[in-house]
Structure to design on (215 residues):
C-alpha cells in the first residue's frame, strides 16, 4: 500500500547505514541506502515515535511494536508499506525533504493491518485522513486536503476521501472513522456499513457533504 509519484529524479548514489531506535516499548529499524541527509532521517524517526503510539492507542492496540524503514534509491514510488516494513523513495525524499509526514500515512497502513486491500479507496482515504489529523509538518511539506469540487467522488481515494471522512467525523459521527477502520480489519465492512453506522447510505452522506462541504 502506498503512493505513486509522477516524476523520478535521478537515482542517488548508495551508502548504506542501518540504525536501531527504541522508545517506550517500540523499536524502529532504519536502513538508509542513499544520500538522504541524516537530518531528514532524524525527523522521520522523531515523527514515528511521536505519532505511532497515538495511532496504536486510537485504532489498533495490537499493532506491531517493531517496524522497519528502508530508504531505497531503487524504489520509484513515493512510499509503500508491507507488513511491518515501510519503503521510502530516496529520490522523493531528496527532492522533497520537507515531506516528512509521508511517514504518518505509511505507518497508519501498518496500524490498519487489514487482511486485504479492498476497498482500496477507503484504505488510502483513512490513511490520508490520519495524515491530516496527526501530521506534524503537513504545511511545511506542501500537503493539505483539497477543496471540494463537484467533479469529485468519495471513491477518488487519498485526500479526497480523507476530506470526506474528516467532514463526516465533524458533522455526522465523531466515532465513524474508528468504526470503519475496525470493520475493515475484521473484514465485516460492506456497502451497508454506512447505513448501519449512520442511518444513511454513503451516497446520501456524499450528497449531504456536497451541499455543505465546509470543514
Amino acid at each position: 500500500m502506498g503512493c505513486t509519484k509522477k516524476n523520478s529524479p535521478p537515482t542517488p548514489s548508495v551508502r548504506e547505514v542501518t540504525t536501531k531506535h527504541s522508545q517506550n516499548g517500540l523499536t524502529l529499524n532504519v536502513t538508509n541506502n542513499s544520500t538522504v541527509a541524516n537530518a531528514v532521517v532524524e525527523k522521520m524517526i522523531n515523527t514515528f515515535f511521536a505519532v505511532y503510539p497515538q495511532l496504536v492507542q486510537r485504532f489498533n492496540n495490537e499493532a506491531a511494536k517493531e517496524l522497519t524503514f528502508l530508504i531505497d534509491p531503487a524504489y520509484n514510488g513515493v512510499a509503500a508499506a508491507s507488513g511491518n516494513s515501510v519503503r521510502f523513495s530516496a529520490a522523493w525524499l531528496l527532492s522533497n525533504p520537507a515531506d516528512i509526514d509521508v511517514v504518518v500515512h505509511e505507518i497508519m497502513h501498518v496500524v490498519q493491518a487489514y487482511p486485504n486491500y479492498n476497498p482500496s479507496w477507503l484504505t488510502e482515504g483513512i490513511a490520508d485522513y490520519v495524515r491530516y489529523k496527526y501530521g506534524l509538518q503537513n504545511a511545511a511539506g506542501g500537503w493539505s486536503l483539497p477543496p471540494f469540487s463537484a467533479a469529485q467522488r468519495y471513491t477518488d481515494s487519498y485526500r479526497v476521501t480523507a476530506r470526506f471522512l474528516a467532514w463526516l467525523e465533524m458533522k455526522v459521527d465523531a466515532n465513524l472513522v474508528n468504526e470503519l477502520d475496525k470493520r475493515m480489519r475484521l473484514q465485516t465492512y460492506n456497502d451497508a456499513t454506512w447505513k448501519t453506522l449512520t442511518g444513511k447510505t454513503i451516497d446520501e452522506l456524499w450528497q449531504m457533504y456536497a451541499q455543505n462541504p465546509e470543514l
